[in-house]
Specification:
The chain is mostly beta strands and 201 residues long. It has no helices and 14 strands. It has two domains: 91 residues, Thrombin, subunit H, CATH 2.40.10; 83 residues, Elongation Factor Tu (Ef-tu), domain 3, CATH 2.40.30. It is elongated and about 65 Å long.
Length: 201
């Protein structure tokens, strides 16, 4: 059972929490939780309605982070120290570790043209992206992708005898077996879910 937000320590039932609120989590000293520990609060947001599975993957939404205020054996109290969004009951916890954003190489290898991936979605299932946005593609370590890999984003205008249109540049910041999260480093034009990505290699 993962550590989760279960509610608040107030006399009324609440379903959303923000900075300064005192919340309850379903773990204590039995789970090696100590006062002062910090955690991200996160939840999975599936691409479509229904359960998360291979055909309906999800993005992980970080709703904020918290600091443990008091503990007993099975429950703990924590204060919300930062909110990216509202924190909600059932958000799960992960240890607070600042992300390591890879540097973008000054080298610009040619983009592969025989192995296109696709833009899937972004935070909160966004479908349109520009500079400094994050988005998910359907390529991962099983396809030879590693953190720091560079990509070009293209669009097929579906017109005969023309090249793909180059829209943006991006770099892989988080890589899983089947999907990766990219950050847009250069945007010449907004792009959307369904556009192509090509690995620079």
């Amino acid at each position: 059972m993962p550590l989760r937000v279960t509610g608040s320590q107030e006399s009324i039932v609440r379903y959303t929490f923000g900075p300064g609120d005192l919340i309850v989590i379903n773990g204590g000293t039995d789970n090696d939780i100590e006062i002062g520990q910090e955690y991200f609060t996160r939840r999975a947001v599936p691409f479509a309605r229904g359960s998360v599975n291979r055909n309906n993957p999800a993005t992980v939404h970080t709703s904020g982070w918290i600091r443990v205020y008091a503990v007993d054996e099975q429950l703990s109290l924590a204060t919300v120290t930062f909110g990216c969004d509202t924190i909600e009951p059932n958000d799960y916890l992960e240890p607070f570790v600042l992300p390591n954003i890879p540097d973008t190489s000054i080298l610009r290898p040619k983009a592969q043209r025989d192995n296109y991936g696709h833009v899937l979605t972004g935070n909160d299932n966004r479908t349109s992206f520009g500079r400094d946005d994050y988005f998910v593609i359907d390529r991962g370590s099983n396809h030879g992708i590693a953190a720091g890999a560079q990509f070009v984003v293209y669009r097929d205008k579906l017109e005969p005898d023309i090249f793909l249109v180059e829209l943006a540049e991006a770099v892989a910041v988080d890589v899983g077996p089947e999907i990766s999260t990219l950050r847009v480093t250069v945007s010449r034009e907004a792009f959307s879910s369904g556009d192509y990505v090509a690995l620079r290699k």
